Amino acid sequence: MLVRITNTPRNYDWGSATLLADLQGRAATGEPEAEIWFGDHPGSPALVDDGRPLGEWLAEHGASTGAPARLPYLLKLLAAASPLSIQAHPSRAQATEGYAREEAAGVPRDAPERTYRDENHKPELIVAISDSFTALAGLRDIDATRRLLAALRPAGHALMARLEGPDAAAALRDTLAWLLSGQAQPDVDAIIAAAATTDDTEFAAELALTTDLASRHPGDPGVVVAMLMNLVTLQRGEGIFVPAGVLHAYLDGLGVELMAASDNVLRGGLTPKHIDVGELLRVLDSTPGPVPVLRPQRLGGGAARYVTDVPDFSLLRISVAPDGSSRVPVAGPAIALAAKGVIEVRGNRSGEAIELRPGQALLVTPDERHVTLSGSGELFLAQPGATSAVRGAS
User: What is the DSSP letter of 341?
Assistant: First the structure.
């Protein structure tokens, strides 16, 4: 079966007033529109044509179509006009243990100080569909960070001293603990002030970001945490995969985001929300490394796959040319989301056809086996982590 699904934007403060409206070809509401969720997550379930939540529809029709009662992933459109909080997500084992601990302690699941709202991990992938998308992802190579801090002397001296030693991951973990402890506030303030007056060619973008973040979050230690992270600008079609424990923050742009179905977030700054420093450090992967840009693997037939190592989800991007079509196998319950042009999705078993325009989505049940795409444009297909193949047809 093919089932059209819709949802309304979530109005978080960091959302863009124009990106989602422009994508969908509608008038802007004047309010920030941050995310549209296409899935059955109870936080904001998509609706089917008769107005029922997708989860309710799956409970009724899943068994007869081969679909599970719950989707293992959540697909979103994300539109950022200002930075999201710095955050990391737990592994499945950490989430299971943390959830049980908070349940035993009687912490209400909707309490602001609650960390673990479910027992699942939350690896995530974001792919830029605006011309560019900026983000912070992972901790920068420590030698590069020392060069950045050297440009801020004497303000950066105390931070540089903490990054000395043979074990870079341990030094970064200890430095993050110090920055978020509250004891480092005089140094935080001095570094932020120095960044606003420092002229450094190598780190001009990072220093400009520091000044911008400080204007949005005065005195927030997360501004200096951000200085330890990789700043990356994605081009359209490039992605970032964020596994468990990796610090990240999305800054600006429009993207397709795919993640395991979870709402577990450990925050590390740039937010007024609760920050549990001890728990963040417990799940943190403080290993420094290069900018983690993920480029898709081309499959032919206009398709490309974003390769990750998690079973919860896989993502295909399919470009459909006006003079052809693409036959796409469906390995599980799939969600098709159009990003450009007008694309017709036709089910193999049912023969049903639904036309999608940018920002529109539908569910494909597993009994279809494959769908045929025609028209002209670009479509993303999310499904469980089994690999998929695509072949073109004239």
Answer: E
Asked whether 228 and 178 are in contact (CB, 8 A), the reply is: no
Which pair of structure tokens corresponds to residue 207? 């220093």
| DSSP calls for 115-170 | --SSS----EEEEE-SSEEEEEEEEPPHHHHHHHHHTTTTTTHHHHHHT-SS-HHH
Cβ 372 vs Cβ 325: under 8 Å: yes
**What are the Cα distances from residue 331, in Å, to 17, 47, 124, 204?**
36, 23, 20, 46
The residues near 227 (Cβ < 8 Å, ≥ 6 apart) are: 145, 148, 149, 191, 195, 206, 210
Residues 34-82: tens digit of each pLDDT: 999 999 999 899 999 999 999 999 999 988 888 888 999 999 999 999 9
**CATH, range 8-38+71-132+234-263:** 2.60.120.10
Q: Which of 81-85, 329-333, 358-362 has the lowest mean pLDDT?
A: 329-333
**Residue 29 to residues 14, 18, 77, 82, Cα–Cα distance (Å):** 15, 8, 17, 18
Beta bridge partners of 156: none
Torsion of CA 73, 75, 78, 83, to 10 degrees: 10
Structure tokens at 10: 């979530």
- 8-38+71-132+234-263 and 309-387 share one fold: yes
Residue 346 CA to residue 1 CA, distance in Å, equals 10
Contact 13, 84 (CB under 8 A): no
Residue 103, SS3 per DSSP: helix
Alpha helices in 230-379 (DSSP H): 277-283
Options 2.40.10.340, 1.10.8.60, 3.40.50.2300, 2.60.120.10; CATH of 309-387: 2.60.120.10
Q: Give domain limits for the chain.
A: 8-38+71-132+234-263, 141-227, 309-387
